[in-house]
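Residues determine shape. Take a concrete instance:
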Amino acid sequence: MKKKILPILLSLGIAGTLVVPYAGYAASTTEKIDQQLSQLKKKKAEAQQKANAAENQISKVHSEKEQTTKDMKALIAQVNEASKKLSDLNNQIDQVSATLEENGKQLDEAEARVESRDQMLKSRLRLMYMNGFVSYMDVLMSATSFSDFLNRLEALKSIVNQDKEILESNKKDRDMVEQKKHETEQQLEEVKVLYAEADAVRDELQAKEKEKEVKIASLTKQEKVLEDISEESERQLTQLAKQEADLQAKKRAASKAKSPFTYTGGKLGYPLASQAPLTSDFVARINPVTGRSENHKGIDLGAPKGTEIRAAENGSVIYASWMNGYGNCVIIDHGKGLWTVYGHIMNEGIYVKVGDTVKRGQKIAGVGSTGQSTGNHLHFEVRLNEKPVDPKPYLR
């Protein structure tokens, strides 16, 4: 009996010596993985901070660019208005110039009339000088009869009235022409001043328009640089999430924990509590926020704020935070290189954290409109080996 017990004890002793080192090895491996996870967490925090800073700066630049664009549109409208005003003033100048020309003709005609009348008066004076001055009284007194006297009186009245009319007409013509000339020249000067002012305003507006164009170009360049930084931060965060997922897998293997992955192919669960309209497909499109062409990496499902977002399959949460244009975002690893991404989650609407295991159909978040979004909806992606693929075949 003792002989049988001894080998058994020896066997148990050997087994014990084997189990204890293995347990120590597993603990050591887990500790190392935890340290690596801790380092990754710090790197993720740094990357997230950098991404947030870039996103905030993009938002400021985008707002400034929008305002500058509005200002430039207003300036263009003012330039067009100033150009129209200049055109109207040009027409006005043409009209005033035409009036001046007409007045010039009237002046020439009036001066000709005045000259003709002056010649008539001068001719009479010459006759009077040559024949000697005869007073009106002499003419009347030399009448041979009363009827001759009356005739002479009428003739003298006619001559006096004619001379008076000539003098009055001359004065009237001279005054009228002088007045018209003065008024027209004054009007022309006023129009020229207005034209110069309008021309100066147009030049100033065009200078401001050019300045705005330069500013928009500069802001667009800044926006592009910041977006490159933002995209690089997104890639970095995705890579860190992948590394974290790999370390979590190693940790589960080391601790012999059960894998959360059960997906072997086939249809995924619908990511919302109820069916929703497809508002944007997995296609090339114009981003409704930035206005630039892009490849839409997923599909958008329109739903009210707070609508339950559900895990499309069993898996492990590898990201649960803010991510650039996605806003609040959750990424779930389902194993075999398959990820699902849930974007634009409402503020305080992420109900899971990194490292959580989730079940298919489990509530993980609430629909919102954070990040680059124009309204409440779920941005849903399926990624295979980190590359976005069309989610629709996985949901049908």
Residues 174 and 265 are 107 Å apart (CA to CA). The chain has two domains: 37-252, 258-396. The two ends are 69 Å apart (CA to CA). Helices lie at 2-131, 136-141, 146-254, 392-395.
